[in-house]
Amino acid sequence: MSEKRRKRKRRKKPERPPRQAMPVRPAEVRVTDFDEVAVGYDAETAVVEASRCLQCPTHPCVEGCPVAVDIPGFIELVKEGEFIAAAQKIKETNTLPAVCGRVCPQEEQCEEVCVIGKIDAPVAIGRLERFVADYEREHGEIEIPEVAPDTGKKVAVIGSGPAGITVAYELLQKGHSVTIYEALHELGGVLVYGIPEFRLPKKIVAAEIDTIKKIGAEIKLNMLIGKTRTIDQLLQEDGFDAVFIGTGAGLPMFLNIPGENLNGVLSANEFLTRINLMKAYRDEYVTPIKVGKKVTVIGAGNVAMDAARSALRAGGEDTEVSIVYRRSREEMPAREEEIHHAEEEGVKFNLLTNPVRIIGDETNTVTGLECVEMELGEPDASGRRRPIPIEGSEHTVDTDMVIVALGTLPRKFISSTTPDLETSDWGTFIADEETGQTSKEGVFAGGDVVTGSATVIKAMGAGRGAAQAIHQYLSNGQA
User: Which end of the chain is more exposed for a tag (fewer CB within 10 A), N or C?
Assistant: First the structure.
């Protein structure tokens, strides 16, 4: 063998650094307050993580992103230390990067199809997105997008969650007049009232939403469309040329088992709304939330984890919180990161356990939860193994508060007052998957009000598609 061949054989490919861990506050400290759990990357760590990207020619990560962020483009800018430019690159298609970098399930979307993920851990796309968005905000260099000349067209956006905010942002840039109607007293929808402070600080949401105010959105708070005004009134009396419905899914689902009307039983939706909008996360506020000493949360999705971890914080150091879930850990729908954080903070998990009755005392107050043990059979329609009750396994879980976190459906304020809007058996609006066009001319819908409970980024993707369709409709009468 020649010397040249021997050298070539000995030559090794340069080693790539490992995926950079996300710094988090210690569990024993963070469980005593509502401050954010994850600390975020610093500049040096972000550059190291960005260097792991292969800049592959196929860009599957972009296809995996519901709003088609130019992921290789922004990561290359991070690698070069151009953090502001990286944030602006993301904002070409993503209105809320600091939000998405915190709460979106990148592991099931862009990171799942990352090429390097086939041989190593995928690039931490979400963590890099969070870093550059935070960097832009903290350095006071947030760029306000240009707005096209006024078209004379008016659009009503109902709901200020991820879908509504995205639609408003896109249409304002195209020169249309946009009025946002929000039923509550703050903009943000589920970002404000649903997700707890320790996962998504309110100041982050406010800063990102502030852009739509600066580019001309008219805001109307405390306006419950379907009650205060109807869709037909917006179109026929108020002069709107199109309407977008992005009201989300705020109607909680229950088990329909005995005892659900007892004192001490509430939905996770109600519990988290009280925590968030009544500012239980701030010491200077006295919030009327009674948290039991033994709290049981039914369910194992992200909302269940949010409720359990919020109960730990709001209840104090002598509060015990447990999750009851009828399947095994492998089938739990929550993000692995959220499950891991809950375990670190002391949440207990009663798996393969199914509630059958809530027990109360003579004052109609919760004292226990009757459950049955389960075993897993063959997969059902969801692809998960179907839980089957084990005969004779009935037992009682000692609890004085039950929080039900089983998902949500849309409320019927709009559908009940707009009979020509077609809905599904679940109460969701039937709309075109690409355009959001509903059965009513000039009315579009997107996000959880169409799909049922889903992710922030999917709602934003629906909002982008609907905004493009609304623009086409306003321009030529066709979506």
Answer: N
Give the whole-number percent of the chain exceeding pLDDT 90: 87
Q: 135 CB contacts (<8 Å, ≥6 apart)? A: 43, 83, 84, 87
Q: What's the pLDDT at 155?
A: 98
Q: How far apart are CA 107 and CA 124, in angstroms?
A: 9
Q: Which helix (H) or strand (E) holds 372?
A: strand 366-379
Between CA 428 and CA 431 the distance in angstroms is 9
Amino acid, res. 176 = H
pTM above 0.90, yes or no: yes
**Which residues have CB under 8 Å from 224's CB, separation 6+?**
183, 413
Do the Cβ atoms of 402 and 296 come closer than 8 Å?
yes
Cα 98 from chain centroid?
A: 12
Lowest mean pLDDT among 85-99, 275-289, 359-373, 439-453: 275-289
Pairing between β-strand 366-379 and β-strand 385-389 as defined by DSSP bridges = antiparallel
Please enumerate in sequence order all residues whose Cβ is within 8 A of that of 139, keeping only pairs 6 or more positions apart, or say none.
Answer: 84
How far apart are the C-alpha atoms of 168 and 202, rounded to whole Å? 20
Chain centroid to Cα 337, Å, comes to 14
Cα 335 from Cα 339, distance rounded (Å): 6
Residue whose C-alpha is closest to residue 295's, from 271, 278, 275: 271
Q: What is the pLDDT of residues 138-162, one digit of tens each?
A: 998 788 888 999 999 999 999 999 9
Average pLDDT over residues 436-442: 97
| Selection from 235, 189, 240, 184 nearest residue 421 by Cα | 235
